[in-house]
Every structure is written in C-alpha cells, then in structure tokens.
C-alpha cells in the first residue's frame, strides 16, 4: 500500500498540486484497500487520510494501513476537514467529481484550485500486480467452470433469463461475490444485439446463443464470451463463426508489449472486412479489465496506449447480422514480457448442442 501512496505523491509533483482527493470507489479501494461504500482518500506530500463516517471507522482502521482514519459528520463535513489543512490546490477525478461537488467546494473553500487529474489514477491501475492478476485469474476460473456447468441447461424452451440466473448462482456458490456486469444471454435473432442482456425469450432449435458474462472475486472482474448453436449449425452460421474465430485468434497472437490497442483492433477488423462482414462489426476489439469491467487500456480504433506487461485485456471480435443472429468470442488475456497468457481456458471450437 505504501508503494501506491508513493505513486500518488509522484502525481502531486507531476501536476504541481498540493493534494489528491479520491471519490471513485474503485480508485479509493486501489489506493487504500478500503471496501466500504462511503469514504474519501486524501493524500498530500506528508499526510494520507481515509475519511469516512461512523459506520466504517472500525473497518477502515483494519483495512487501510498507512492511513490516518478521519471521521466525517454533518458537524465536520469533508470541506471543513480540507479547509483545516490549508490546501490551495486539489487534484480531482474529473470524470467522477460532479458539477455539484465543484460548486460546493468552490463556495466553501475560497481560493481553492481544482485540478483535473486527466485519468491519471486509472492509468496507474492499468498495470496489475501479481496479487491483482491472481484475483482476476481466479474469477476467470470460476467463469470457465460456470460455462461447463450451464451447457446442459441450454436447450429449447429454456429462457435466456434462466441461463443467466444459473450462471450467476453457480459462480456465487463457488466463491464469487457477484456478477461483474449484467449478463448477456442472447439467442436466435437476438444474438445480433451486441449487448442483448438476458430476456424472457425462450431458446429455440437452430439458435445461436451468445453468453457474455463474468464474476467478481476479491473485487476483481472476469469477462468471457462464447457462442454456441442449439442443434446442427447451418452453413451460414459456420461461416460467421469461423470468421470471428479466425479474427479472434489472429489478434490474440499479436498481443505483446509495445503493440497498441489500435493495432490489435485493426488486425481483427481487417479479417472480418476481408470476408465481407465489416459493417457487422461495430464495436471495439476489447478493453482493459480489473476492479472495473471496462478500464484502461482501450483495445479499439482509438486505443493509442502501448501494451505493458501486467495489463489485462479482452480480445472479443464479433459479427452481428440483424434478423439473423450473431457471434462473439472473447478471451481474458494477460500481457506478459514476451507475449501473452490466456486466462479463459474454455475451448473455442464451435459447440453444437445435441437436442
């Protein structure tokens, strides 16, 4: 934790500010280890404070090593605590610090300068420690096991919602604290919806069924997608699936330090375009994963961050044809010194579920 506090202090020098104030829960947890739902991290050159209310004081004392625990209340609000520190400049998470927060601070803290951190905290979090990678890998194992568990449930007449519920129940029962996002279970023509969250539609013979899901383990997310066919796949389904698989595996093999998200996206996109399906691949190739399901680095057409060892990303191309269906195949991947390691171990060859 001291290393992470040091990172914040390096940021003070870089931004030429006196303090950093952290609101966002994922950033707060990363820099302090605090898992409560209310609290603020305030770090200066000489002080590190975790500010929370009465409900979380005991918890904060046990979790936040290296921090002074400060109680906030209606008699001692955050602005009063900051005012007593005589700070004149404060770094804020501009994507999370609201207009209302800014009005409140500037009206109560005369002369205070608010400085946007420009995503610097998320950039720090992009490269994972071995401890973080272990948590993500454990969440990925749970997702793999859930896929094998749920396959027998995928058959005509079963609702998409029932599949999603079974996935979540299995992962929670086996150690997950929750779902990392609202699961996508999209069947038949609905599989052409890239974010077709599970509905009351019943699965039918001949359907593509796309399962995009993940879980949270010790705060860290997993994310995986597989697409199956209920019954025998027709020629068109096989062609689409083969194209997506080729794009996914080719982009995956290009993952290494120094390559950008834009370059990876181009590799997969070119394969899909060459097969005549370019207009049906409308999202980015992937994204970073960690405490949040979508975080840096970007793996898409604007992804200009070079991959570094310790980054965890997804590789997930897709083809989505309205009134027909769609395919997405997604792996969770660690960038390593000389390439990559795939965390998603579930096989990717087309599964045709016998009915």
How would you summarize the topology of this molecule?
Blueprint: H1 2-15, E1 19-22, H2 25-32, E2 40-44, E3 48-52, H3 57-63, E4 68-71, H4 78-84, E5 89-92, H5 99-108, E6 113-116, H6 120-125, H7 130-150, H8 160-173, E7 178-179, E8 184-187, E9 208-213, E10 215-217, E11 220-221, E12 224-230, H9 235-253, H10 261-274, E13 286-288, E14 295-299, E15 312-315, E16 318-321, E17 325-328, E18 331-336, E19 339-342, E20 351-353
Parallel strand pairs: 1-5, 3-4, 5-6, 12-20
Antiparallel strand pairs: 1-2, 2-3, 7-10, 8-9, 9-12, 10-11, 13-14, 15-18, 16-17, 18-19
Helix pairs in contact: 7-8, 9-10
Detailed description of the structure:
Its EC number is 3.4.-.-. It is an enzyme of class 3 (hydrolase). With 355 residues, the chain is α+β, with helices and mostly antiparallel strands. It has two domains: 2-124, Creatine Amidinohydrolase, Chain A, domain 1; 130-353, Creatine Amidinohydrolase (Alpha-Beta Complex), CATH 3.90.230.10. It has helices spanning 2-15, 25-32, 57-63, 78-84, 99-108, 120-125, 130-150, 160-173, 235-253, 261-274; strands at residues 19-22, 40-44, 48-52, 68-71, 89-92, 113-116, 178-179, 184-187, 208-213, 215-217, 220-221, 224-230, 286-288, 295-299, 312-315, 318-321, 325-328, 331-336, 339-342, 351-353. Helix 7 (130-150) crosses helix 8 and helix 9 packs antiparallel against helix 10. The radius of gyration is 23 Å and the shape is elongated. The mean pLDDT is 97.
């Amino acid at each position: 934790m001291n290393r992470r506090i040091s990172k914040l202090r390096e940021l003070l020098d870089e931004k030429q500010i006196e303090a950093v104030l952290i609101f966002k829960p994922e950033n707060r947890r990363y820099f302090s280890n605090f898992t409560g739902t209310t609290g603020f991290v305030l770090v200066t050159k000489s002080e590190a404070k975790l500010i929370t209310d009465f409900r979380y004081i005991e918890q904060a004392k046990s979790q936040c090593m290296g921090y002074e625990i400060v109680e906030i209340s209606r008699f001692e609000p955050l602005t009063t605590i900051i005012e007593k520190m005589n700070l004149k400049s404060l770094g804020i998470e501009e994507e999370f610090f609201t207009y209302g927060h800014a009005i409140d601070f500037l009206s109560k803290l005369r002369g205070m300068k608010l400085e946007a951190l420009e995503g610097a905290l998320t950039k720090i979090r992009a490269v994972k420690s071995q401890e973080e990678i272990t948590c993500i890998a454990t969440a990925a194992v749970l997702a793999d096991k859930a896929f094998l568990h749920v396959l027998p449930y995928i058959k005509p007449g079963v609702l998409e919602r029932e599949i999603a519920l079974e996935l979540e129940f299995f992962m929670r029962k086996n150690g997950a604290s929750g779902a990392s996002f609202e699961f996508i279970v999209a069947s038949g023509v609905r599989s052409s919806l890239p974010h077709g969250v599970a509905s009351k539609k019943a699965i039918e013979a001949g359907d593509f069924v796309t399962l995009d899901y993940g879980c949270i383990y010790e705060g860290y997310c997993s994310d995986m997608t597989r697409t199956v066919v209920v019954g025998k796949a027709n020629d068109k389904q096989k062609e689409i699936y083969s194209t997506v698989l080729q794009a996914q595996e080719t982009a995956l093999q290009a993952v290494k330090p120094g390559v950008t998200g834009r370059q990876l996206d181009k590799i997969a996109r070119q394969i899909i375009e060459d097969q005549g399906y370019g207009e049906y691949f409308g999202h980015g190739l992937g994204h970073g994963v960690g405490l949040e399901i979508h975080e840096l680095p970007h793996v898409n057409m604007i992804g200009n961050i070079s991959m570094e060892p310790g980054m965890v990303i997804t590789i997930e191309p897709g083809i989505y044809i309205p009134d027909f269906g769609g395919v997405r195949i997604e792996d969770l991947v660690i960038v390593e010194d000389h390439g990559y390691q795939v965390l998603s171990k579930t096989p990717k060859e087309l599964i045709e579920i016998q009915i």
